Amino acid sequence: MDMLSDQAALLQTMDRTSAPAAPDSSVRLSRVVADLSAVLLHPVETDGLAQRVDALARDLRLVVAHDADLALFEVQRYGSSQHGIYSVVHAVQCAIACEFIARRLRWPEESMVSLVKAALTMNIAITELQGTLATQTTIAKPTAKQADAIAMHPARGAEILLDAGVRDAVWLRAVDEHHERADGRGYPRGTSEPSRPATTLRYVDEFFAKISSRASRPAMPLQRAARQLYTDADGRWIVETLIKEFGLYPPGTYVRLANGDLGVVLRRGRRVNTPLAVALANRHGERLPRRVYRDTSDTRYAIVMASNMGNEHCR
After folding, report:
1. Could you tell me which residues are beta bridge partners of residue 295?
2. Which of 80, 148, 174, 203 could pair covalently with 197 via S-S, beta carbons 3.0-4.6 A apart?
3. pLDDT tens digit string along 14-43?
4. What is the pTM of this model?
5. Are strands 276-281 and 287-295 parallel, antiparallel or unpaired?
6. For the chain, what are the domain ranges?
7. Phi and psi for 127 in degrees, rounded to 5?
């Protein structure tokens, strides 16, 4: 069974279980992705870049505020099926995660907005290159020119934003320092005192890079990615907050249930490991005649296998 081809129908299922405006939220999120793509691919030629990013951040935050689960599901749908816009989807995923983290930690509203905009634009200097590397079918060492662009993209990104009229110091610094580390081993400057928004953005960036598939490699399971980042004391609180907000099985995750059903998570649950899922096929791989919801807190439908990499990994 091709689970990816069934996701359009799943969105209709989600709309019926969401608030009435959920379809509008889905359309708005699609527009955010499309508009952000235009901005990130052609930043220098974009008129009113600062104002356009302001509007994109506002629209994205409205979607998340209205139905965060739908937003997570939709972004996962993009991420699993469209390698060509990897860098744009990655930016949106990171922005949503930053919104969750900042809200849970009760950051001031102004700081939250700055962090979301920084997440949307952190890779503005290498959007096309990032997409190219993500779609390469073999793992290859970057050329000297590519390596130089990667090493300097935080500083270059902040420069592009500044030239475009951005004057938000928190936003600019977060972009400029989002690969710096407290141990001084980051880049491009090796500063040992990156800002809190920059540090938050770095771990979110790394987390989603790990759990996103590329043409040359599968996605890393979410739990393994979290464990790797959790060993770094500086990022521990960020990883903890991410898991509390996203859960161990965020919307869009493919799951195999204890009764043998194969399905996909629709909504987060009361606990990080018990989301609401919809079963799409029985243990024999036969499509179910109707949508069947499974509360995974019920031991009969507990999750026994999960994957953010595609349904073939849940067989």
Report:
1. 276
2. 174
3. 434 433 345 577 788 989 999 999 999 999
4. 0.86
5. antiparallel
6. 4-246, 254-314
7. -55, -50
